[in-house]
Design a protein that fits this description.
429 residues, Aspartate Aminotransferase, domain 1, Aspartate Aminotransferase, domain 2, 12 helices, binds pyridoxal-5'-phosphate, PyrdxlP-dep_Trfase_major
Length: 429
């Protein structure tokens, strides 16, 4: 493979790092095969849903104005519902991001006097203002919806006694965040989520169990909706958009839950009947079709990164051999210089904006400077190769995505090269 090595050389990858990468990849063969099998199953699942709903070229044409009788939009929602084995789905460009999808699910299914209970600890940062954990204009708290939280136990498992104690007659929705997001707890497997949902339903059947599925779609054979979850939400610029959806979010689940969400997104009475799809349905369909293999590429990248950096002596979460339930990889580099070098390597590997040098800056909403690397086709897309790290101890960088495994691999090798050039790492050879 002399010519492959020469290509990497063109990117500034030295012999030692190239060889280290090849050896690491060789060792991961069995795991990569398992990921491909998982993608194969999920590919068939999506294809089956598309065929069952007779997806055809007319479905891509889109609508304008009110968007009445938008068959393409309605069929796409059936494809999502069938893929995730739910009664109904809301998949819209008018859902602006993941936070919006989750907020919509919550606001539409909770009423004043109800309580929301998170049983997987503190939710994702942006949801703190949705819930009102941090006082915020328009939060659930302002509408008289209270919030309770049960943290996961030290080992990352559900605190069942705590959950039993926290559930009261006002508990209306129980929410579970599947992915660790930017925390260091483990990501929850679908099986574990299923156990928790069964436990909650056993206490009171009519509690709505909801999952924030961001970053989790297609990482396993099944999804939270296969194990009793009533409602699940996520972002289309993460896994299910397959890198092609330029915007959007989804909610799938029980008919009543989805209908509630539709009434809130548009208007009571109008619900799912309006909402022009404009010209972007093609990318939604095609992105969903590609999502299983795109997610597989991102999973391989995350596992590769874990193994590369673990072998160099850095703490990594998840570790190199753990099973995966999302596409996020954390690497604790231990120094600000390490975080910066890592992000610059990811940036330098990008198809877009590769010549840009990322710098740490004081981003709104963060309590330290943050550095971000992304050279994406879709702004802010995190199914595309991206990394970011707050410039504060323990100096960890969070890495995710890669529309192809080959690109993820280059990004990781370039990050390592930057660390190596700055004398911030010793290779284990
Ligand atoms: C990304 C993410 C969100 C929020 O999604 P945005 O599209 O950034 O608003 C919520 N929860 C988790 C676990 C996420 O990873």
């Amino acid at each position: 493979m002399e010519s492959l090595k020469n290509m990497y050389e063109e990117f500034g990858i030295c012999d030692a790092i190239y060889e280290f990468g090849q050896k690491t990849e060789e060792k991961l063969k069995a795991r990569f095969d398992a990921i491909d099998k998982n993608a194969e199953y999920n590919q068939l699942k999506v294809l089956h849903a598309m065929q069952k709903n007779r997806v055809c070229a007319e479905h891509f044409s889109g609508s304008t104005g009110y968007g009445y009788n938008d068959d393409g939009r309605d069929t796409l929602e059936k494809v999502y519902a069938d893929t995730f084995h739910t009664e109904d789905a809301l998949v819209r460009p008018q859902i602006t991001c993941g936070t919006h999808a989750i907020a919509l699910a919550l606001f539409s299914n909770l009423r004043p006097g109800d309580e929301l209970l998170s049983i997987a600890g503190k939710p994702y940062d942006t949801l703190e203002e949705v819930i009102g954990i941090r006082p915020s204009r328009g939060s659930l708290a302002e509408y008289g919806v209270s919030y309770a939280q049960v943290d996961l136990k030290e080992d990352g498992s559900f605190d069942f006694d705590g959950i039993r104690n926290a559930i009261n007659e006002r508990t209306k929705v129980v929410t579970i965040q599947r992915s660790k997001g930017y925390q260091t707890r483990p990501t929850l497997s679908v099986a574990k989520i299923g156990e928790a949902v069964a436990f909650v339903k056993n206490i009171r059947e009519n509690i709505i169990c909801m999952v924030d599925n961001c970053y989790g779609e297609f990482t396993e054979l099944s999804e939270p909706t296969d194990v009793g979850v009533d409602m699940m939400a996520g972002s289309l610029i993460k896994n299910p958009g397959g890198g092609l959806a330029p915007v959007g979010g989804y909610i799938v689940g029980k008919k009543e839950c989805v209908e509630n969400a539709a009434c809130r997104l548009t208007s009571p009475g109008l619900a799912k009947e309006v909402g022009a799809s404009l010209g972007i349905l093609n990318s939604f369909y095609q992105g969903f079709f590609l999502a299983p293999t795109v997610t597989a590429g991102a999973l391989k990248g995350a596992i590769f990164a874990a193994n590369i950096y673990e072998a160099c002596g850095f703490p990594v979460v998840p570790n190199g051999s753990e099973s995966r339930h999302d596409i996020i990889q954390a690497v604790e580099l231990g120094t600000a210089e390490g975080v910066i070098a890592f992000c610059r390597g990811i940036q330098a590997a990008a198809p877009v904006d590769s010549y840009v040098t990322p710098e740490p800056w004081a981003m709104p909403g963060y309590d330290s400077d943050v550095i971000m690397a992304a050279g994406a086709f879709v702004q802010g897309s995190s199914i595309e190769l991206s990394a970011d790290g707050p410039i504060k101890p323990p100096y960890a960088v969070y890495f995710q995505g890669g529309l192809t495994w080959q690109h993820a691999k280059l990004g990781i090798l370039m990050s390592l090269q930057k660390l190596y050039d700055a004398d911030l790492v010793r290779l284990p050879l």
